[in-house]
Amino acid sequence: MTTGLYPGSFDPITFGHIDIATRSSHIFDKVYVAVVSTRSTKSLMFNTDERLQLCTEALSHLKNVEVVSYSGLTVNAAKDFGAHAMIRGLRMGSDFDYEFELALNNQKLSPDIDTMYLMANLDHIYVKSSLIKEIASGGGQISHLVPTNVEEAIKAKLMN
Known about the structure:
Layout: E1 3-8, H1 15-27, E2 30-36, H2 48-58, E3 65-70, H3 74-80, E4 85-90, H4 93-109, E5 114-119, H5 129-137, H6 148-159
Parallel strand pairs: 1-2, 1-4, 2-3, 4-5
């Protein structure tokens, strides 16, 4: 059985993330969408449990996809979940530089785990979680960028 790990903060999960998870589910027998539980470099809107719930709801239609959380190095999480590859999405050229550096370092840490990149669908190439939060904070429409459960969660979070 081939297993892939799709890691990220998913703060929040977007239609772009869902597209990558869906396409990955056609390539791998099992896909773990791995929500990182600690992110010191990012200001998160949702805590780990909230992000897990939002992802689980948004991906419930994918029978071979399981949402999990992890902390520490992503390559270690890939090993822990028995993944053969880490799945990453690429939106544009600026993503490539960061992802290339990350992949080379991960290769040194764990040469037996590959990194697989899927190009973003053109409909989602500019979808970015931080931008969605900014649009929502300004009262803009985000229903074309995130599922209904995420849109409602963002609005509720902003009202508090």
